[in-house]
Write a structure and sequence with these properties.
By secondary structure, this protein is of the alpha/beta class. The protein is about 45% helix and about 15% strand. Helix 5 links the parallel strand 4 and strand 5. About 40% of the residues are buried.
């Protein structure tokens, strides 16, 4: 199956890198500024992946104004310290190098603001492997995974292939564009892939809840970076 993949989109957090310390500590910092104390960083793991505004609303009941304020506090720490409190998953750079050498076209499609995505990739030396890097905007636009995936596809794919995908976007269709695959650790990544009828590989070594990826309908689920490499080859 993996031999068909020519265009590969990767999520960042929980897929390429383990960002737990940076993200959870910055959420903790933002909550403190909002008058909420959360000493247990493990409880803040669900913030890894989705847009911040959605998570502040879902887990702490913040309205839009509170969510924006908390996001400003989060970025206050993240932009200086948090984005580097991060680790590349062992074996990931070798996998990217092999994919690149095999002639695959690679993209990053992350809900994190693009400016931070680029800085993280550069910091860890991963930027050299990607043809396209897409994130959200700092003003909150293009935060939904589907929007990020669409922009990554627009930049990565040949025009004819992209137009074919857009014709069936969000509609019932038997057609599966399985030369294109989205790799991610949360249901948002799988749902983003399904909206465009492209393949999806879910990675269980990230931050998905039990059964989250299978319930979302991932085409393939892997437990390790080594298994991911085999799935993509």
């Amino acid at each position: 199956m993996g031999e068909k993949y020519q265009y590969i989109l990767f999520d960042l957090d929980g897929t390429l890198t383990d960002p737990k310390l940076g993200i959870t500590t910055c959420v903790q910092y933002a909550l403190h500024k909002m008058g909420i104390e959360e000493p247990d960083l493990d409880r803040l793991e669900p913030f890894i992946g989705p847009p911040l505004m959605e998570s502040f609303h879902e887990f702490y009941g913040f309205d839009e104004e509170q969510g924006r304020e908390a996001t400003v506090y989060y970025r206050e720490r993240f932009s200086v310290t948090g984005l580097f409190e991060n680790e590349v998953y062992p074996g990931m750079e070798q996998l990217l190098e092999e994919m690149k050498a095999a002639g695959k076209k690679l993209a990053v499609a992350s809900s994190k603001p693009g400016v931070f995505v680029e800085r993280i990739l550069e910091h860890f030396g991963l930027d050299v492997y990607f043809d396209v890097v897409v994130g959200s905007e700092l003003d909150g636009t293009r935060a939904k995974k589907e929007e990020v995936v669409e922009e990554a596809l627009r930049r990565l794919l040949p025009e004819e292939l992209f137009q074919g995908i857009m014709e069936v976007k969000g509609r019932e269709s038997e057609k599966k564009y399985d030369t294109v695959v989205m790799v991610g650790d949360r249901r948002f990544d799988v749902e983003g892939a399904k909206a465009f009828h492209i393949a999806s590989v879910g990675v269980n070594y990230g931050y998905a809840a039990p059964e989250e990826l299978s319930l979302a309908g991932a085409d393939v689920i892997v437990d390790t970076v080594t298994e991911l490499g085999k799935a993509l080859k």
